[in-house]
Amino acid sequence: MPELPEVEVVRSGLAPAVTGAVVVAVDMLDQRSLKRHDAVMGDFERLVTGARIDAAVRRGKFLWLPIGDDRAIVGHLGMSGQMLLRTPDHPGDDRHARVRLHLDHPAHGELRVDFVDQRIFGSLAVDRMVPTADGGVGGFSAATTGEWARLIPSQVAHIARDPLDPEFSDDAFARQLARRGTGIKRVLLDQGVVSGIGNIYADESLWAVRLHPEQSAASLSARRVREMLGAVRDVLGRALTEGGTSFDAQYVNVNGASGYFEHSLNAYGRAGEPCPRCGTAMVREPFMNRSSHRCPKCQRRR
Questions:
Q1: Which domains does the chain have, with CATH numbers?
Q2: Active-site residue numbers?
Q3: What is the pTM of this model?
Q4: Tens of pLDDT along 118-153?
Q5: What is the 3-state secondary structure (H, E, C) of the chain?
């Protein structure tokens, strides 16, 4: 599943190409990719055609393109979704292409955004925008002004801010941890508490601060919470710099290039290999239908 760095790489690549562009046509190639589109809103193609895109915005793993004062095209990449920038004459023979948006940009001219999704777990939808619960800017974007800025798609409103969001509150996050007796990794993966971290970057962050995934969240001191948040931001920041983590050809940026943070991982996927810090063999353990990777010496449960 693409996590915050992978989705942010896509958002930042889309932003300069789509901001200010007008959708001149839509090719609907597979209706299954509209499974989260509410038909009550109207026909997707009709709602989108002729709309001007104001920005490319992200919260956690969700992307949206505001179109007008109270609507947005909302995208979720799912397991294998890609949003690829194409020239108008790019061959249209990709059998996994589900939706094509034909755009006209005032500076870049004609271009195309292809929503490609092999497994069809991702989706596009037009959704109504609602005010943010805290009154802040809805999501991460290069632009923060406009009628849309303090709004968020209703499908995304339940998603908490992520640690790279300028309006993320460290104090509010610490207060939530203090009320939770569950393991810290479960909390890091709870999108209602903090968004965008995901399994890979949770393992990397917990390894960095020597925390056991099942260590009670409520047991962490204020100092340890600050250390952990610092590690999360450092890991996410480094992953962003390296274009995200690409274990296969499905996780790519808007130009189809893979990230290379996989080569910088210290914990995730390293079961049986020596811990980069102490040399002890790393272990892989079952966790919520997934896996946790940790060092049994460095990351003991206290």
A1: 4-153 (3.20.190.10), 170-294 (1.10.8.50)
A2: 2-3, 61, 290
A3: 0.89
A4: 989 999 999 999 999 999 999 999 777 888 999 999
A5: CCCHHHHHHHHHHHHHHHCCCEEEEEEECCHHHHCCCCHHHCCHHHHHCCCECCCCEEECCEEEEECCCCEEEEEECCCCEEEEEECCCCCCCCCCEEEEEEEEECCCEEEEEEEEECCCCCEEEEEEEEECCCCCCCCECCCCCCCCCCEEECCCCCCCCCCCCCCCCHHHHHHHHHCCCCEHHHHHCCCCCCCCCHHHHHHHHHHHCCCCCCCEHHHCCHHHHHHHHHHHHHHHHHHHHCCCCCCCCCCECCCCCECCHHHHCCCCCCCCCECCCCCCECEEEEECCEEEEECCCCCCCC
Render pLDDT for 41-96 as a digit per residue (tens, 0 to 9). 999 999 999 999 999 999 988 999 999 879 999 999 888 888 999 999 998 778 89
